[in-house]
Amino acid sequence: MTDFPVGTLVWVEVGEGYLLPGKVKAKGKNNNSIIEANGKEHCIAFAQLLQGVKKRDAIPEKGMEDMIKLSQLHEGSMLYNLNLRYKHDLIYTYTGSILIAINPYHLFDIYNVETARAYEGQLLGALPPHIFAIANSAYMHMNANRQNQCVVVSGESGAGKTESTKLILQYLAIINKSTHNLITEKILEATPILESFGNAKTIRNDNSSRFGKYTEVFFDKQGCIEGAKISDYLLEKSRIVFHADEERNYHVFYEMISGLSQEHLDKLGLSAADKYFYLNQGRGISFESKNDSQDFQRLNEAIDFLGIQDTEKDGVFHLLASILHLGNVCFRAKSKEDQFASFKNTEALDVCCNQLQITKERLRVALTHKRTVTRGEEFHTPLLVEQALDARDALAKALYSHLFNWLVMKINSIVYANLPKYSVSIAVLDIFGFEMFQVNSLEQLCINYANEQLQYYFNEYIFHLEQQEYMKEKIDWKTIEVRDNQPCIDLISKFPIGLLHILDDESHFPKSTDESFLDKCHHEHSQNPNYIHPKQKVLVFGIRHYAGNVWYNVEYFLDKNRDVFRNDFVNILQDSKLQFISTIFNQTLTNQPNQTLAGTATRKRMPTVAAKFTQSLNSLIDTMKKCHPFFVRCIKPNEDKSSLNFIEKLVLEQLRYSGMLETIRIRKSGYPIRLDFDSFLSRFHFLARNKEKLREMSPKVGISHILKSVNATGFQIGQSKVFLRETTELILEKTKSIEIQAKCVIIQKFVFYSQL
User: Fold this and answer.
1) pLDDT score recorded for residue 601
2) What is the number of H-type helices and E-type strands within the chain?
3) Which end of the chain is more exposed for a tag (fewer CB within 10 A), N or C?
4) Does pLDDT of 705 surpass 50?
5) Helices (H), 108-261
6) In which residues is ATP bound (predicted)?
7) What phi and psi values does residue 532 have, to the nearest 5 degrees?
8) Percent of the chain with pLDDT over 70
9) 39 is in an annotated binding site
10) CA distance 685 to 683
11) Mean pLDDT lowest for which of 318-332, 407-421, 698-712, 736-750?
């Protein structure tokens, strides 16, 4: 084609880095074309017209529900389709069985009981894309195959992962077959509790989950919910003592102060939130989208509904109050000559000790001195002001993290008890998205390592295993290449010189420093293509992640990884006269495994943060590998959290690093449904035109006969399995449903006439 007439729909490149949808508006001089794209008119030279402009196929006004149906597949067509749908409040789009969910930043009335019932029992694709459709597919697949399912909800912070997770659990509760719904309601009531204690306002997200959560919901043979289990990962402890400008500490602190009666606040020694150092650093005490007082009432109701005792609830509030008072404990140097720490005043310390029911003198000494025991003799070394502040903050973080651990254990003791061995489950993974800040520390390294592992899991399931099976079964297939992030995972965690292993080793040598850790990283990995060595001598290193390059500042890496909670603090808390405090510190500090990153037990080595996180992450991935997965890719459309504002470059960046273009390609040309011959014949044998001869046919011939009987096209028959496109399975199931209904009518007529 040498030219495009006026009115032709086109794809045009105008310097955005991807093709834009356009339309030829007029013809200019020298065979130039005036093309309107992105709200602007562009004059395209004839030579460029031949090379950089392609004819565009029209798609429906509201876009395509499933992107594998796009006739033209490239980044521009993906963006255009998603944008079209988003403008019509259609936030969900399929890529085969993968759901793309774009955060609308406002509420929709599409999550009620009636909507849930409409999706119940429907095959994926039979109704418009919806988070309920994914939950329903997992439920149907679990019941049909008696196999554990997992739904992996991924995306950046603020993309809507937490809300998607809640909606999946809500759907499972609605369609629950049990007539006894108490356990189901308790599972749902755990959500507001964990949100209050585990979520916080960040710059990017007003309700950001600051911990990872894997929720398993267990079902019996009849599809009734029997219980649930929650596993938590890497609570952000540092938020207890520090939060950035325009951010907040965990919701529960503000909710408690806003929601408790004045009498109860007086009992806890509490006043306004802005009076506490741990709450006022970000200058964002309250914000428009959250009603702390109302949310506290919701939290209180949930705690009561779960049956948490009043003495335990009272203990929780005393502990939370003690943290706030502890944050207001300040130190100063005794004198110019004596720089060791002394207390500026003891009022906050007095109230803190009163809330914890511990001896003031013991805590005073522990905060300003370090206790060591050498050859049976005890020494108390005075601390400098900075060291005393570190001791104070370490105690605050330990108090909160032990409370959070107790809370998860308490919830599990209520919703996960005496489950029979034959239970199957649907799990939902809601884990922190990829993080890249101005200053990134050990927390971000662990979070991004988890995201690398999950991306590998996605790639392995969608690309590698699928294509390996095609080759094994010898079906016609052209390999689709996808970026392999295994080298990046190896850089971080491969034994013995992965970054986390180096960190683990350094953390067990008293004389090691952050600088010595960084030097070893440079020495071992300066030639690694995924490792970025800084040009200047600074305390940072970089990693080329699948989602982009990230620089990590190693200052405090060793201290954070050691996460040492001093024995003198432990002893003080275990001796608390408040039973709740003494109980949780005796519970959580006994029988801790001494585990290193390499996985070998040792008496001398205490488990580090990196070791514990790596171990729990590996266990999680192993569990997920035994499940049939579904994927929900949450997309953040803008940085302003504004409603229906679709920033194409931001969306494209997320689509690129999550591999969605390659995903569409393999789903479009691939065969995600695979059944062994016996399973296929068992499910669809009565669709054969000639049922008599079917028994005489070989499995291959019989399967071919059935597929031809329904005029199916998207399939291939391998050595031992039949491979189907998702649309083909839908045709087979619809035809099967019609056949069954027709036979039921015949049987009903027979019964009716036989009774005359």
Assistant:
1) 41
2) 29, 24
3) C
4) yes
5) 113-119, 131-145, 161-174, 182-198, 251-259
6) 155-162
7) -110, 115
8) 95
9) no
10) 6
11) 736-750
Distance of CA 395 to the CA centre of its chain: 29
Average pLDDT, stretch 701-707? 94
pTM for this entry? 0.88
Span 62-83, average pLDDT: 93
Is 231 labeled as catalytic in the residue annotation?
A: no
Q: Is the pLDDT of residue 603 over 60?
A: no
- Residue 128 token pair: 């418009």
3-state helix, strand, coil in the chain (%, to 5): 50, 15, 35
Which candidate, 428, 425, 431, 480, places its Cα nearest to that of 455? 431
Kindly tell me the sign of the dihedral angle through the C-alpha atoms of 337, 339, 340, 343.
positive
Query: What pairs with residue 379 in β-bridges?
Result: 372
Q: What is the pLDDT of residues 363-382, one digit of tens each?
A: 999 999 998 877 778 888 99
Strands across the sheet containing 92-95 = 92-95, 98-102, 628-635, 149-154, 424-430, 212-219, 225-233
Q: Residue 308 in 3-state DSSP?
A: coil
**Would you call 342 a catalytic residue per the annotation?**
no
Residue 446 contacts residue 234 (beta carbons within 8 Å): yes
- Among positive and negative, which fits the CA dihedral 400, 402, 407, 412? positive
In contact, 224 and 425? CB cutoff 8 Å: no
How far is Cα of residue 743 from the mean position of the Cα atoms in its chain? 46
Residue 15 falls in the annotated catalytic set: no
The answer to whether the annotation marks 599 as part of a ligand binding site is: no
The verdict on whether residue 144 carries a ligand-binding annotation is no
Q: What is the pLDDT of residue 602?
A: 43
**Active-site residue, selected from the candidate residues 103, 196, 202, 205:** 205
- Which tens digits make up the pLDDT trace of 632-650? 999 999 999 999 899 999 9
Side chain identity, residue 196: S
Average pLDDT over residues 70-94: 94
- Tokens representing residue 506 in the block: 């350094």
Q: Is 71 a catalytic residue?
A: no
For 716, the enclosing helix (H) or strand (E) is strand 715-717
Identified catalytic residue from 208, 440, 459, 582: 208
pLDDT band for position 593 (cuts 50, 70, 90)? very low
Structure tokens at 14: 């105008």
- Nearest CA to 230 out of 482, 413, 445 is that of 413
**Catalytic-residue membership of 335:** no
Please give the sequence-ordered ranges of beta strands (E in DSSP) within 31-146, or none if there are none: 33-37, 40-44, 53-55, 92-95, 98-102
Interval 738-744 mean pLDDT: 81
Query: Band of the pLDDT at 591, cuts 50, 70, 90?
Result: very low
pLDDT digits (tens, 9 = 90+) for 293-338: 999 999 999 999 999 999 999 999 999 999 999 999 999 998 888 8
User: pLDDT (tens digit, 9 = 90+) per residue, 526-551?
Assistant: 999 999 999 999 999 999 999 899 99
CA distance linking residue 272 with residue 282, whole number of Å: 15
Q: What's the pLDDT score for residue 114?
A: 97
The CA distances from residue 345 to 226, 326, 328, 359, in Å, are 54, 12, 10, 17
Beta bridge partners of 717: 722
- Which residue out of 93, 95, 157, 576 is catalytically annotated? 157
Can you tell me the distance from the alpha carbon of 384 to that of 549, in angstroms, rounded to the nearest whole number? 38
Residues in Cβ contact with 209 at an 8 Å cutoff, skipping those fewer than 6 apart? 161, 162, 195, 198, 199, 430, 432
- Reading the block at residue 414, the tokens are 């209520």
HSE (side-chain half, CA atoms, 13 Å) at 242: 7
Phi, psi (degrees; rounded to nearest 5) at 551: -95, 135
Task: Kindly state the helix (H) or strand (E) to which residue 614 belongs, with its residue range.
Answer: helix 609-625
Residues in Cβ contact with 144 at an 8 Å cutoff, skipping those fewer than 6 apart: none
Query: Which amino acid, 276?
Result: Y
